[in-house]
Recover the amino acids of this structure.
């Protein structure tokens, strides 16, 4: 199983995955709250839904920064970005999205399958595990 070279890369993948899920859930929640605001006609709910939408946009921007930095440890494909490359036949999807498939695997089990090379990878650095020293 492939691992990242540094702990920072593994953390950036974890944080990018968390922000992707937060962005999606925040967008759905702010949309539902905005719809309820139109029904209830309360000013306070309008401001809350606008703040929630602003936080969702901010988390989306931070997610994009993380998505452009994190790459597969083997093939160097962008895991949380969508470069329109050919996907592997065993690539996992979640709700039709390859990025959500990677994020789901990272957040639930700490492992994922690269959507480009199809190799299983672990969201950890090579130095985290005993016996996985550098090969010379």
């Amino acid at each position: 199983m492939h691992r990242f070279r540094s702990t920072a890369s593994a953390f950036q993948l974890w944080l990018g995955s968390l922000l992707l899920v937060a962005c999606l859930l925040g967008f759905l929640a702010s949309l539902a709250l905005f719809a309820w605001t139109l029904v209830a006609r309360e000013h306070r709910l309008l401001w809350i839904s606008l703040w929630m939408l602003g936080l969702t946009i901010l988390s989306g921007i931070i997610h994009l920064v993380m998505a452009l930095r994190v790459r597969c440890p083997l093939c160097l494909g962008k895991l949380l970005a969508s470069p329109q490359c050919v996907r592997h036949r065993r690539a996992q999807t979640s709700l039709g999205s390859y990025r959500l498939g990677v994020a789901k695997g990272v957040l639930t089990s700490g492992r994922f399958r690269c959507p480009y090379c199809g190799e299983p990878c672990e969201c950890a650095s090579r130095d985290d595990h005993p016996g996985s020293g550098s090969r010379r």
Observations:
- Residues 2 and 74 are 7 Å apart (CA to CA).
